Amino acid sequence: MAKTVNIWIDGQALEVPDSMTIIEAADKHGIYIPRLCYHPDLPPTANCGVCVVEVAGNPAPKRACCTPVMEGMKITTNTKNLRSYRKTLVEMILSNHDVTCPTCAANNKCELQTLANNLNIDPDALPNILDKHPIDDSSLSIIRDVNKCIACGRCITVCNEVQTVYALTVTDRGIDSHVDTAFSRGMANSPCVNCGQCTVYCPTGALRERNDIDGVWEAILDPDKHVIVQEAPSIRVSLGEEFGMPFGSVTPKKMYAALRKIGFDSVMDTNFTADLTIIEEGTECVTKLKAGEKRPLITSCSPGWIKFMETYYPDLADCVSTAKSPMSMFGVLSKTYYAQEQKIDPAKIVSVAIMPCTAKKFEARRPEMRDSGFQDTDYVLTTRELIRMIKEAGVDFANIKEEEADEGMSFYTGAGTIFGATGGVMEAAIRSAYFLVTNTELPDLDIKAVRGLQGVKEATLNVPGFGDLRVAVAHGLSNARYVMDRVREGLATKGESPWHFIEIMACPGGCVGGGGQPYGNDIASRARRGLSLYEEDRSLPVRLSHHNPEVTRIYERFLGAPNSPLALQLLHTHYFKRSVNDGQITGEATHKHH
Predict the structure, then answer these.
(1) Which of 51, 152, 202, 301 is catalytic?
(2) How do 169-171 and 178-180 pair as beta strands?
(3) Is position 360 annotated as part of the catalytic site?
(4) Which listed residue, of 188, 201, 480, 482, carries a Cα 20 to 30 Å from 309's Cα?
């Protein structure tokens, strides 16, 4: 049992674990200490000094984020001196900050803005000493505006410690120090995998997604264009929270109605191609299992993970499924199968994807994603961008009447919807792979061993006719690195992998925690969104991908069979070997299926 200590905060007696810091103890008991650089998901950097408190017996204030509690400690969080100290610190930050709040992507979500308002600071009364620097817009996914950076260090912490990508660092010294990429070469020429976790944890608007809203509006308002839209599984559990609905509300039919109101010509659903991905990837997996393959099959739905693999583990590229992500499968089918069924010239189709993920913007621009003869996915909007479009269109999302999606590529099963949570792809795949091997249904569809937010989850499932199927699930790239190191070691020393099938998602929590999800996207919110997806799975009449009637129809009318020559041509891909300085779309091809 953890040892506890007795402390007092603002005169309130508390018993707390001795492993806590002052700010953790205060948060646990509902006592708010102002903060700016601190985030409960990340190790403290103690950069800003805003969280200072007075501790009896200490001559100087202490930073609550990094000061451990001690027996008998008496802490005061709000005094005249503390308020003056905090106010001065925030005024100094604002005087060297590009204060353009109304037009900033983080407006009304900015922690600096909120703190300044709470401390009653008037930015117009402050001197402006900002020496403006160029905006780094080299990346296909992420814009970095150093003029809005407050040097809190969160982006560096999440990039280096949580994701182990090391794209960001502190450059220069003293007053000139600032967050930058190595040698100031820009995000596009760094190891950045476009996961966008830096944008999630940035307290201001210094890091944000590349905005594609204007291009989508232009397409919608062009009478010559037929604009089709798809939405990822996790979008339906994050939209509602931005419009005053209970957190984790599942809103697919409101989402469809809002998109139709915005003006999209055809509203369908990425969950359909999530089911299709399971059939393609499951067939690929079963083929390897039956062949006695010693190298594992690793899922390929997360573009941040794929680029991470291409950069750090290209020698294991042949272990990664060649199946495209559900988004890219939908994109290529929208300009082939859908165009054929609807008798529309594919040159007039504009395919738009609503994704929780900044890395999807990069994925859409990969040169190999043109198997339709066109760019398969024309635009990718993050959840945050869709929210802005809904507001711009004047849609009352919370009260809009629900509508169904259009038929053709929209029906989905419970297996398709859980793609949005870590472990969901694995669970969906096992449900169908079991059937593909045994020709019988899995007795219990709820595979709870692969659920939850543990960094690496392992499970063994007995499959009649095969034996024990060993699987692993990792989310967050530091955990992916651990799994891939074990695979590499196992292949080198024993000639086989510790697991047969592996799911990896770049973002902690999976897509519910994607880099394009609404601001305030902490671990607790990711957990709640994931639970909502599992609740929708249980409520749906069909929970198995191989029972999706629209998937059955697309094989009968167009693809022929799973892993058929046409399926391999359109729905599968290859990967590149990249250097850590190769940020975008060049590289040497390493692995191709078709």
Answers:
(1) 301
(2) antiparallel
(3) yes
(4) 201
Cβ atoms of 529 and 237 within 8 Å: the answer is yes
Q: What is the rounded CA–CA span in Å between residue 361 and residue 202?
A: 19
Q: What is the pLDDT of residues 173-208, one digit of tens each?
A: 777 778 999 888 999 999 999 999 999 999 999 999
Catalytic: which of 198, 511, 525, 550? 511
Residue 460: DSSP 8-state: E
Residue 49: its pLDDT value, please? 94
Say which amino acid occupies 373: G
Answer for the pair 389, 547: CB distance below 8 angstroms, yes or no. no
Please confirm, yes or no, whether 368 is among the known catalytic residues: yes
Instruction: Tell me if the domain spanning 214-592 has CATH number 3.10.450.50.
Output: no
Looking at residue 419, what DSSP letter applies?
A: G
Extract the runs of DSSP E, i.e. beta strands, from 176-260: 178-180, 207-209, 226-231
10 Å Cβ neighbour count for 47? 18
Residue 552 near residue 572 (C-beta atoms within 8 A): no
Respond yes or no: is residue 539 known to be catalytic. no
Residue 104 bears catalytic tag: no
CATH fold for the domain made of 101-209: Alpha-Beta Plaits (3.30.70)
Are 109 and 56 within 8 A, CB to CB? Answer: no
Percentages (nearest 5) of helix, strand, coil residues in the chain: 40, 15, 45
- As assigned by CATH, the class of the 4-78 domain is alpha beta
Evaluate whether 528 touches 247 at the Cβ level (below 8 Å): yes
Q: Please pick, among 139, 321, 325, 432, the residue that the annotation labels catalytic.
A: 321
Q: What is the pLDDT of residues 250-265, one digit of tens each?
A: 999 999 999 999 999 9
Domain residue ranges of the chain, discontinuous segments joined by + = 4-78, 101-209, 214-592
CA 243 from chain centre, in angstroms, equals 20
Task: Tell me which of 307, 360, 361, 457 is the catalytic residue.
Answer: 360
User: Is 328 in the active site?
Assistant: no
Beta bridge partners of 350: 227
Residue type, 386: L
CA angle 179, 180, 182 (to 5 degrees): 135
Active-site option among 281, 385, 427, 503: 281
Q: Is 284 one of the catalytic residues?
A: yes
Asked whether the predicted pLDDT for residue 586 surpasses 50, the reply is no
